[in-house]
Amino acid sequence: MADASPKFHPPDLLPPAAAAAADLATSHDGLVYWQYMAAGSVAGVVEHTAMFPVDTLKTRIQTHSLPCKPSPGLRHAFRSLIRVDGFLGLYRGITAMGLGAGPAHAAYFSVYEISKRLLLTEDHPNNPAAHATAGVLATVASDAVFTPMDTVKQRLQVGSSPYRGVADCVRRVLKEEGFRAFYASYRTTVLMNAPFTAVHFATYEAAKRGLMEISPENTDDERFLLHAGAAAGALAAAVTTPLDVVKTQLQCQGLCGCEKFSSSSITEVIQAIIKRDGYTGLLRGWKARMVFHAPAAAICWSTYEASKRFFKNLNDKKA
């Protein structure tokens, strides 16, 4: 896997505005805009498909309607799901994920590449603040695309889901709750993913530098970068678990025993969770979330970089 950290290459002798505009057509890695979108789309679908069963278990744990202390773990959730729904229950909602993850990751990586190209300077080609800002901007864009299908996915993943499939879920939610229901969790999702992205990139860079100091001769080793990515994904997932619980509750509210809220207020949901389950309720699914994001981050970045290399080689052959 190529180094996932952003790189800066000075533009040709053009005014800053012209250089920035030119980058929208041809970027610093020799790829055109649609190729970043395609690479990101492939990365997102591969990542979420590979880790979908763990995501289903996390959703089941977080939507557990009965007070349960400690909250049910991965093993209990897995056994219960297999006993009731069978093996295929682990993949219920995967169609909604595919419909949302591809376009969302295309938006994420294309906005990320453009943003970092505009924010980085020749004097500071590896500015952490620029990396984090680019990631946050990409998150806002991708969440706007993914949230509706993520809501459908979550509702299909819930135990004893009343929906027959994606189309049935979309039709019934529109009829019974209106279009706004698909975006009930958008604010929470952005508030969760913005710090997730910041922690992820900061940890990734710190872990990579630490590993370089320990073993400088292996800095280009794919496993070397995968370890840094996994550590970043795991820590970011753990830190943002409470907001992920809130997001899941908002997306599945009123369904299969889940509490119904009068608004999309994060404070209201947090208070309801604490009242019902105590403060530990805000940590439901943290193990599953870490198990998901550690390998997911490695899978996503490695697939994205491999797809970029494919397009770069393709462009070089045409040149």
Mean pLDDT: 81
Q: Per DSSP, what share of the residues sits in E-state strands of 2 or more residues?
A: under 5%
The helix/strand order is HHHHHHHHHHH
- How far the N terminus sits from the C terminus, by CA atoms, comes to 24 Å
Tell me the helix content.
Answer: 55-70%
- Our Rg estimate from Cα atoms comes to 21 Å
Give the overall shape, derived from the CA principal axes.
globular
Structural class: mainly alpha
Q: Give the number of helices.
A: 11
Descriptive notes:
The protein has 319 residues and is mainly alpha-helical. It is built from eleven helices and no strands. The chain starts with 15 loop residues before the first helix and ends with a helix.
Characterize this entry briefly:
The chain is built from eleven helices and no strands. The chain is mostly helical and 319 residues long.
Secondary-structure blueprint:
Elements: H1 16-25, H2 33-62, H3 74-85, H4 94-119, H5 128-157, H6 166-176, H7 186-214, H8 222-239, H9 241-251, H10 266-277, H11 286-318
Helix pairs in contact: 2-3, 2-4, 2-11, 4-5, 5-7, 7-8, 7-9, 8-11, 9-10
Q: Which short descriptors sum up this protein?
A:
11 helices, 319 residues, mainly alpha, disordered N terminus
